[in-house]
Design brief:
7-stranded mixed beta barrel, alpha+beta, 6 helices, globular
């Protein structure tokens, strides 16, 4: 089954009601036709406490997870899988201006891989998880790049220099982590042959302008979201893991619980979604 098909393990009855509509191919095609005519409505948010957890994965373990146009970044036979989790502040339409402060502030977790140098600064979503059903419904009705899943059991909070995260969705897409900020910026040993420094690795992982996602009704088709995140790289903080329960998904990638995890924190940044387009089938 397509990984972006809406999962309705939650007992929330309204989401169960919307599930067939959100997956209806006629509804999706009608929305795509309208988006070709109507201007894109830009979105923005201020996000905080962005925790990056990244693993090196044997690229041959995951190369076939995506359609042919997707060429994953790789070096020395490894590619990178990242889970980044953060808190939105009033995520909504830019045109609302000050009224955007009336919009909710969901928590979000993006699970992603990185594309190779032919598509620089581009990621592809393995999964997107949010804790508010409104954004699941709205994102799926309005976009092919926001096929979010709903996780009612979602915690992400900062306590001074520690950040605690708990996400429970299903067996593959659940994890928990406790990290704390440290002063020393160092790469895990397994990463040192791929990047020359902590700063180089962080810039590669953070500096992204485009996000791809497969269509939920046609997994061989892909849409691209254009994003803008002006990052102050000198503010990014090194972090260390105190406790980590990895998602079972990593076992499908050939990783065990002891695999080296690279983690750091972006304290805050402005986040903008400035466009979306369907990629040509030959892309």
């Amino acid at each position: 089954m397509n990984r972006h098909r809406l999962k309705w393990s939650s007992p929330w009855s309204t989401l169960r009601f919307f599930a067939p509509i959100l997956s209806c191919r006629f509804v999706l095609q009608l929305r795509r036709m309208m988006m070709r005519i109507l201007p894109f409505m830009r979105l923005q948010s201020q996000v905080s406490n962005v925790v990056y957890l990244s693993w090196l994965v044997d690229v041959e373990q995951v190369r076939q997870r995506y359609p042919d146009p997707v060429v994953l970044w790789e070096k020395q036979g490894k590619t990178i899988f990242t889970i980044l989790t953060y808190q939105h502040q009033h995520f909504g339409f830019t045109f609302l201006g000050k009224l955007r402060q009336l919009m909710p502030s969901p928590r979000q977790s993006n699970w992603r891989f990185y594309l190779n140098e032919s598509k620089p600064k581009t990621v592809i979503f393995e999964q997107v998880i949010v804790d508010q059903a409104l954004y699941v419904i709205g994102g799926r009705l309005a976009s092919d790049v926001m096929p979010a899943q709903y996780a009612p059991n979602f915690q992400h909070q900062r306590d001074e220099n520690a950040i605690h995260t708990r996400i429970r969705m299903d067996e593959d897409y659940s994890f928990s982590s406790d990290i704390h900020i440290i002063m020393q910026k160092r790469l895990p040993e397994a990463w040192q042959s791929l990047f020359s420094s902590w700063e180089e690795a962080v810039q590669f992982l953070v500096d992204q302008d485009y996000a791809w996602a497969e269509w939920i009704d046609q997994p061989t088709r892909i849409s691209q979201g254009d994003i803008n995140m002006p990052v102050q790289f000198q503010q990014i903080q090194a972090a260390e893991i105190d406790k980590l329960q990895t998602p079972q998904l990593l076992q499908q990638f050939g990783l065990d619980d002891d695999a080296a995890t690279f983690t750091f924190v972006v304290p805050k940044l402005d986040f903008y979604v400035v466009g979306e387009k369907v990629l040509p089938e030959s892309q």
